[in-house]
């Protein structure tokens, strides 16, 4: 039982670290707010996220 709990915690941590969980949360929100619209692929999501991050330069030093 402890091993299973430990493995679950490691899996959760790695998913949070790599951003995989963020895409899953995005898909859930997207399905909730736009039920008829197709969910973007992981690649489309990454491009959208990168574009949004690049457009917000106010808090960056460079």
Description:
It is a single chain. 73% of the residues lie in helices and 0% in strands. The chain contains 3 helices and no strands. The protein starts with a helix and ends in a 7-residue tail after the last helix. The model has no long low-confidence stretch (mean pLDDT 89).
Which short descriptors sum up this protein?
62 residues; mainly alpha; 3 helices; flat
Structure in a nutshell:
The protein is mainly alpha-helical. The chain is built from 3 helices and no strands.
Rounded mean pLDDT is 89
- Tell me about the largest β-sheet: none
- What would you report as the Rg, rounded to the nearest angstrom? 16 Å
Hey, roughly how much beta strand do the residues contain? under 5%
Could you give the distance between the termini?
Answer: 48 Å
Which structural class best describes the helix and strand composition?
mainly alpha
- Unreliable stretches: none
Shape designation:
flat
Can you lay out the helices and strands and say which pair or pack?
Layout: H1 2-18, H2 20-33, H3 42-55
């Amino acid at each position: 039982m402890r091993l299973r709990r430990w493995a679950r915690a490691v899996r959760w941590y790695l998913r949070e670290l790599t951003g995989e969980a963020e895409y899953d949360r995005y898909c859930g929100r997207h399905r909730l707010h736009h039920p008829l619209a197709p969910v973007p692929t992981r690649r489309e999501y990454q491009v959208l996220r990168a574009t949004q991050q690049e457009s917000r330069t106010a808090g960056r030093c460079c």
